[in-house]
Amino acid sequence: CSPLMMPNPKLEGYFLFAVVFLIGFLLMGDVYLTYRNALIMRHNKKLQEETESIKINTLHILRDLNLLDLGLRGYALVDNPRIAAAMDSALIYTNRAFRELEGSLTNQGYNMDEFYMFRDSVESYFRLTSEMRSYLENNEREKFLQLLAQDRGFQVWQYYQNFSRNIHEFEEKVSSKARQRYDEAVANIYMVQILLFITQVQLVEMS
Questions:
Q1: What are phi and psi of 111, to 5 degrees?
Q2: d(CA 196, CA 27)
Q3: What is the dihedral of CA 119, 124, 128, 130, to 10 degrees?
Q4: Among 4, 27, 88, 122, which is most exposed with the fewest C-beta within 10 angstroms?
Q5: φ and ψ at 138, to 5 degrees?
Q6: Nearest CA-CA partner of 133 in 63, 66, 70
Q7: How many whole angstroms separate alpha carbon 67 and alpha carbon 83?
Q8: 24-28 contacts: CB < 8 A, separation 24 or more?
Q9: Residue (of 109, 90, 103) closest to 53 by Cα position
Q10: In whole angstroms, what is the distance from residue 24 CA to residue 136 CA?
């Protein structure tokens, strides 16, 4: 047998050590990526819940604006303070929705200047309707009708439409990025597991 063809135990030992080291490295990588994937899944779940909460609160603001108008117009038609109480409920619900929106949108990096402009327009409209309500309470219907004829609620509704559309587009982008991060994490795990499998097969063939 030629000396060149004789097995070299020392070289085989180095190669075996390298393969075992590679397997250990890949196992550590698999554990790390699995843990990272679990964190991403947890983050995505929280993000999904937050996104859903933002959409719901945005819809609640429109509902509360409608409740505000119904309460004011109903009070103008029927002089009953219980009908006007709907305006108070609308104010409470809207303030709550804005507080939750502010926290969630700040966390997601939304353009808060736009949010504050929209909130200011809604709060301004609430102050206007409060003034109109006081005119009704003081039997100053002419002043009430003058403000009613200006139909400032339509402008607030337009602000809402723009804000709602922008929120929807922003949340779609947030959800898309979250899904992309998750898909990348899963792909990395598959890649490591495939390399681990190939390395183990090579090790078995050598034994």
A1: -70, 95
A2: 7
A3: 60
A4: 4
A5: -100, 15
A6: 70
A7: 10
A8: 26/192, 26/195, 26/196, 26/199, 27/196
A9: 103
A10: 79
